[in-house]
């Protein structure tokens, strides 16, 4: 990286530093995460003042520093006005920004993460007030997790490797979801693995079988699994309907299913990154009616 360099990036985090400066964390396609000081950005007449606010996309000119880089020029490309005018949308955007900060790598090209985050911020910016935010968040989290190489297995059992055929006509049908195994587990295969381990231990008391059976964190129903299996798509338009007939979804609350799916994915990624997504709590407070 040269002493002075250019990048296009979105402001994901900002804080005060010294009396009038601002420290910003920027996600760029060219260099991944960059942390830079914006000198004088807190001053009322500073050209950097509005350009270093959250979710502003700029063409940047930056000077490389020993510990922190210095932002010397920012030309705004887009500001996501729809996010700043709606507290719920802003909270959802902060959720995705926080997750992206955890997944991003410093000073490494990450064009896919940059593009996916902006794609989902645009969707959240334009979603209608009468819609549920959770389909948008669930698919965004799924896509971001995929970039990190942590895509959950939602078609085959993590224990047996066999395909699982989703049953959306029965309210009693369930399949396990294991964070440790990285996806779904057929409950029949899970029970068989438990029985086999018990039998092996009974047959050889001196050398017990130490094969670990993964913990099942959630038991999910047919419509929740069907939703998970659709999240890898690029389009969100078909997701709320999933081509179900009225009879097939008679047993289920579709809005509740979306909330459950998003929370399972949230817990799944928190398990793997070892961090809590704090912004998600505000989303729940704003959108979930208790």
Find the CATH superfamily of the largest domain. Answer: Nucleic acid-binding proteins
CATH top-level class of the largest domain: Mainly Beta
Alpha carbon gap, first and last residue:
51 Å
What order do the helices and strands follow? EEEEEHHHHEEHEHHH
The average pLDDT value, as a whole number, equals 90
Question: Under the CATH scheme, which architecture of the largest domain would be assigned?
Answer: Beta Barrel
Main-sheet strand order equals 1-2-3-5-4
What is the C-alpha radius of gyration, as a whole number of Å? 23 Å
Largest sheet: 5 strands, mixed, barrel
Task: Work out the count of structural domains.
Answer: 2
**Helical segment count:** 8
- Share in helix: 25-40%
- Report strand %: 15-25%
Basic shape? elongated
Strands, total number: 8
Uncertain segments are none
How would you concisely characterize the structure shown here?
With 290 residues, the protein is an alpha+beta fold. The chain is 37% helix and 19% strand.
Keyword list:
single chain; OB fold (Dihydrolipoamide Acetyltransferase, E2P); three-stranded antiparallel beta sheet; 8 helices; alpha+beta; 2 domains; 290 residues; five-stranded mixed β-barrel
